[in-house]
């Protein structure tokens, strides 16, 4: 079981329609019945967005993710714990019918892992969204 807390603030800057948001969250994990505890995690994001032309808007997000080492029987678990910083440019199109399309390019600008473990590479994500 874990406990999560989140703070978020959004706003607009000037006549250009520049939007911004900042969010921070923290997840504190508890120990399992087998005395294993996943590392606690902290996330901080800053997002800037603005209209580009017509229904097209663009954004840029910076995201810092840090997770502490996991613990088992009061000992640090090898190859756990990490710190990543991502830069994510994105495009968003409002299409007729209320189903916007988007595309994100997630670029890991900084990667640190304890010991040896897999680390993320660049990723491209596209999709459609619908609010009900």
Helix vs. strand class: mainly beta
Summed over residues and divided by their number, the pLDDT gives a mean of 93
Helix content: under 10%
Form type: elongated
Output the helix-strand order. Answer: EEEEEEEEEE
**Largest beta sheet: strand ordering:** 1-2-4-5-8-9-10
- Could you tell me the radius of gyration in angstroms? 18 Å
Describe the largest sheet: 7 strands, antiparallel
Write the layout of secondary structure elements.
Blueprint: E1 2-13, E2 18-29, E3 36-37, E4 41-53, E5 56-67, E6 71-72, E7 75-76, E8 82-93, E9 101-113, E10 123-128
Antiparallel strand pairs: 1-2, 2-4, 3-6, 4-5, 5-8, 6-7, 8-9, 9-10
Could you characterize the architecture of this molecule?
This protein is an all-beta fold and 132 residues long. It has one domain (2-128). Helix content is 0%, strand content 65%. It has strands at 2-13, 18-29, 36-37, 41-53, 56-67, 71-72, 75-76, 82-93, 101-113, 123-128. The strands form two sheets. It has a seven-stranded antiparallel beta sheet, with no helix packed on it. Strands 3-6-7 form a three-stranded antiparallel beta sheet, with no helix packed on it.
């Amino acid at each position: 079981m874990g406990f999560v807390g989140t703070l978020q603030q959004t706003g607009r800057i000037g006549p250009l329609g520049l939007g911004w948001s900042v969010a921070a969250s923290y997840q504190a994990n508890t120990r399992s019945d087998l005395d294993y505890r996943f590392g606690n995690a902290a996330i901080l994001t800053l997002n800037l967005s603005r209209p580009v032309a017509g229904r097209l808007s663009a954004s840029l997000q910076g995201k810092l993710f840090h997770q502490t080492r996991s613990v088992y029987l009061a000992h640090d678990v090898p190859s756990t714990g990490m710190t990543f910083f991502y830069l994510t440019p994105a495009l968003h199109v409002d299409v007729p019918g209320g189903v916007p399309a988007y595309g994100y390019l997630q670029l890991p600008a900084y990667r640190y892992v304890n010991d040896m473990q897999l680390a993320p590479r660049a990723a491209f994500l596209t999709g459609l969204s619908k609010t009900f």
